[in-house]
Amino acid sequence: MQIKFQPSTQPNQLQGTTILPVVQLPEGQQPAGLATLATLCDTTTDVLAQRFTAATQEIFPVVRPHGLLLLVGLGSKPDFASTLKTCQQLAAKHDKFLHSELTLQWLPSAAPDNLSLHTEAVVNGLVQGCHNPGVYKTRNDRQHPILQADTTLTIVSDPAQETALLDAAHQGRIIGETQLRIMALVDAPANFKTPAHLAQYATHAGQTYGFNVQVMNKEALEANGMHALLAVGQGSVVPPAMLVMEYKGKANGNGLPTIGLVGKGVTFDTGGISIKPSANMHYMKSDMGGAAAVLGTIEAAAKLQLPVHLVGIVPTTENCIDALAVKPGDVISSYSGKSIEVIDTDAEGRLILADGLSYVIRNYHPQVVIDLATLTGASVRTFGYLAAALFSNDDQLAHHLAAAGQQTGERVWPLPLWDEYGDDMKSDVADIKNFSGKPVAGAISAAKFLEFFIDQHPSWAHLDIAGVAFGDMPYGKGKTASGYGVRLLIQFLKGGVIVH
Ligand code: BES
Ligand code: ZN
Ligand code: ZN
Questions:
Q1: Is any ligand 1 atom within 6 A of the Cβ of residue 464?
Q2: Which amino acids are annotated catalytic?
Q3: Model's pTM, two decimal places?
């Protein structure tokens, strides 16, 4: 898709499909700019007002001699997240209205404030809404009109806004395209998506977009003492790996804050010997949603040339069942040297993150460490599908992540790390155990386990994204990837990371 700008002009001369977003006025009042809209639609204000209220996600197509006009409702309080969602739905559900010649028309009387913000949201939403989970169908010849190489999107607005709107559209497109790539990865079945496949994906992305990638294979994991990751991987025929990615913004990273990102990369979670029930087990191909968020964030940061130094760590493995698999009660070691009693082999994510966290902290000394993981069913029971659980030992970091979540719609909400919760993780036989054995506070006790491996780092945050990485989306009947995390973390990084 190419993006162009055209100073405001008579919209009815435009060809193809014109997207015209409209803000809804308070209860009982007609949509903004109704008289102008009615003229454009060749109708009266009364007729239009009866058919189109500009509620969020409301789409009103009008056929005109040279093309289609799509009035798109933004609701009465449009923000980045609502506009993004509206345009995501538009691309996903109404592709028949879309065309290789697209116009985004900002009509002053109907448009929201902050056109840059909304332009970015429109473009991001349109691109992200093109996700196609059906790539494994033998007849998959459908290409979304928005993704076709010769598609142009012309933004029509006040000429004074040209640079700002083109920049915003560019950023929306870059993030949307990155989200599409990681959504395809999360939706990929586990027989395609092995740890080696993730390693290949990262290596290729690093070469293409300009960041360094090193893959620690099984031998290297053994040489480095990644015992917890190896223990989870030992029950699978495909070997585990650890991906180490590094992106340095301008000046080769000198003087830039170092941010460590760690993502859970379990390519399939059977539960291991503590096997999961079979209903919905197929969704456990998405247990690498944290890894996808880290891969996508580094890729987008590199494409946008953000002034940060990022270190992305992805411990990746299957959690399978086999004669060699780790057993409940086994005691294993870890990269930190601490011993772990494995009470439940289904609490595998925290084991591999323990190695990832200790590794990034010891070897890169990041000022801030953030991990993302589809870690517990308990976080889903707490927040449903609306927010990630946020744990942090740094109030300022938590505040910045929460603000980025609010801004982007990728919400996070805090839960406590009180010491008493850690008592439940004490083991009689090892330094710590991986499951409290209690049916309560599961997301918190998992976070307390991780905290044990951060070496007293003063600025760490853990995001339990089990409820938000994968879910009911407009792309199909079953659950699919959401792309969660990329937008949140890019927003966080752009906000300027406060290091203290
Ligand atoms: N991958 C799961 C968590 C999960 C559950 C992700 C639902 C997405 C949706 C994780 O490895 C797991 O199995 N956690 C257990 C931990 C328990 C055994 C302590 C859980 O939450 O039940
Ligand atoms: Zn598990
Ligand atoms: Zn898991």
A1: no
A2: 276, 350
A3: 0.97
